[in-house]
């Protein structure tokens, strides 16, 4: 976390001054990470280091005969359950009113999808998103309606109270931030997971407590199909983490899948999406976005605006945490 704080403070003035006439800022350094040669099928990829444990679970589900959809659902449930995690699940950091509201989406490669947003008290928003997909004619249900749907489905719910860690952090934030609706890029590490099974079916999931100390009612990219998550198993899948407003603005995950459809590698597509986000950013100094993508052959790529983004990878040779390249060095 300390490292992420530091890079946020890096000056970006030299880059802004270097805006070329094409409209796209020029990256100060060429991206360092290339994954284009590697291909794995099946494969599970997740954002951030908490993705390691989530991927292990997803892999186990696949190995015991579960579908790729089961795998991406049950994988991120590990993170939703992780009491140390302050950016996913009910133990996450609250909004500026002190209320935890959750966003999640799930998608299959055939275009089926479901999402919940601004939902309270639901222990596994990813499973509720799956129920929206499978049991309703809708794609997204939000707020009190989503909570009522959860109650009617009998899914696990919890009494509304902040976890000890979230409470401590929130109390500290209240003193310093004085209730300003700041866009804070330090304490949010959404899990987005994308998976490919041995037969080429793909699915993805994305779940978060969203931006720490957000305005009450604010919804980020994670539950927005096409922004935080998009899967089309004729092409590939992509997910996003970081400042949701900037991801929504460019339809990040959809953009990456469409770039792959046009022939870009997952790595090239992620880099192009980052470039697009940088060009459209309303607040580059305070923005971090990380994209993660995989195509239907099992090639993969990742890219971020700033250093510090990593992703977890699991395939038949084992699992590892991989550092992503970034637009800023
Ligand atoms: C949001 N994209 O709510 C989420 C937050 C996040 O890593 O991804 N943090 O904007």
TrEMBL record:
Q: Which organism is it from?
A: Cyclobacterium jeungdonense
- InterPro entries listed in its UniProt record: Ntn_hydrolases_N (IPR029055), Peptidase_T2 (IPR000246)
Database matches in CDD domains: Glycosylasparaginase
Protein name listed in UniProt: N(4)-(Beta-N-acetylglucosaminyl)-L-asparaginase
Q: Which Pfam families match?
A: Asparaginase_2
Give the signal peptide as a residue range, or say none if absent. Answer: none
